[in-house]
Design goal:
This protein is an alpha/beta fold and about 350 residues long. Helices cover about 30% and strands about 15% of the residues. The termini are far apart. Bound molecules: 2-acetamido-2-deoxy-beta-D-glucopyranose and calcium ion (2 copies). Belongs to the peptidase S8 family.
Length: about 350
């Protein structure tokens, strides 16, 4: 039964090609309580979020950004480069892989993003998303911390409320020193009122309590996400377990891509890689919208709002085969709803 449904999804998704102005299935999913597949229809897809994230900043620790796309425009007014591990990279922060560009598109793209009016703060910690050097990850995190403190100092009441997202998932036993340094920086970021979005990890069936930042999930300012398919079933790539607080879509997702034949294209879209980071992208976008909607709500209560809204209104992620309920699917309030700021 399930196999048949998945084939249906793959068939429709292959036939479908995103064009600017349409609503992608994953955005259609996150402002409602039910899965949009197996009969998703792009012509009636709807995404009607309560806000666009205006006035909030999302720090994106990844491979950088190709900022020329319409999806990040108009112009480059919404983009800031906070850090680039490679001082010789020109222009600073530019993406040579495509992962960071795709990730940024799902969080804050004008056409493919959850939160279309955030400030995009690019933190380039690696050229290759599969192998970041922990030294550069830690430097990137420190740069985020410094930038956020600077904003708060410059403008103590009206600073851009911040969210930080990265794809790092460290095995604590493999790199205990790196993990300790990372957790120390996360604690400092939380103390400065940043919301941190992390993933439950992609190491199949690993105990999430061996992974960081996943094992920090109990902190309300930190939100740890797992990944689902179009039917709200756990994606095979995603870990599950107690660390997964909320679930987001992670496959067959359209976003900005680097065109291998034309390095400066402004409108190129492609399916993103089948990776867990795209599930966390949705959570970061929702958190940014909440930060904008509730600017006086501190990071720990923003995290609580995000989880509780998903629990009450998002539907439930399920384990394939057993139908075990794994937790809530991420949910953004619509323009017709009125969540109360904590
Ligand atoms: C990580 O970067 C540091 C600083 O440039 C360097 O000393 C170290 O060798 C790098 N580690 C690896 C595994 O490449
Ligand atoms: Ca919808
Ligand atoms: Ca948490």
């Amino acid at each position: 039964m399930r196999l048949v449904i998945l084939i249906t999804l793959a068939t429709v998704a292959t036939a479908y090609e995103f064009v600017e102005g349409e609503v992608t299935w994953n955005l259609d999913r996150i402002d409602q309580s039910k899965a949009v597949w197996p009969k998703w229809n792009p012509e009636v897809a709807e995404y009607d979020p309560i806000g666009t994230g205006t006035g909030s900043v999302v720090y994106i620790l990844s491979t950088g950004i190709q900022g020329t796309h319409n999806n990040f425009g108009p112009g480059i007014v919404r983009q800031t480069v906070i850090y680039d591990f490679d001082p010789n990279n020109v222009p600073s922060g530019s993406d040579t892989d495509g992962r960071g560009t795709a990730l940024t598109g799902v969080i804050g793209g004008l056409y493919t993003g959850v939160a279309t009016d955030i400030e995009i703060a690019t933190v380039r910690v690696s050229a290759d998303p599969a192998s970041a050097n922990i030294t550069y990850v830690l430097e990137g995190m420190q740069a985020v911390l410094d930038d956020y403190v600077m904003r708060k100092t410059a403008n103590p009441t009206n600073y851009q409320r911040g969210v930080a997202i990265g794809s790092v998932s460290l095995d604590v036993s493999v790199d205990p020193a790196g993990a300790a340094a990372l957790e120390d920086l996360v604690a400092q970021m939380v103390a400065e009122d940043l919301v941190i979005i992390g993933s439950v990890g992609e190491s199949f069936q690993a105990d999430c309590m061996n992974l960081t930042p996943a094992r920090l999930y109990a902190d309300n300012s930190i939100i740890i996400a797992g990944g689902i398919d179009g039917l709200d079933y756990k994606d095979p790539v995603s870990n599950a377990g107690e660390c997964a607080e909320v679930w987001g879509p992670m496959q067959e997702i359209w976003s900005s891509a680097i065109d291998p034949n034309d390095n400066s294209r402004v409108d190129y879209y492609a399916l993103t890689d089948h990776r867990l980071i795209f599930a966390t992208a949705h959570v970061a976008g929702v958190a940014a919208v909440i930060r904008s909607y509730c600017p006086n709500t501190p990071s720990n209560l923003v995290g609580t709002m995000v989880i509780e809204y998903a629990l009450a209104n998002g539907g439930t992620a399920l384990m394939p085969g057993t139908e075990e309920e794994l937790g809530p699917v991420i949910r953004i309030a619509t323009s017709k709803e009125t969540p109360v700021c904590y």
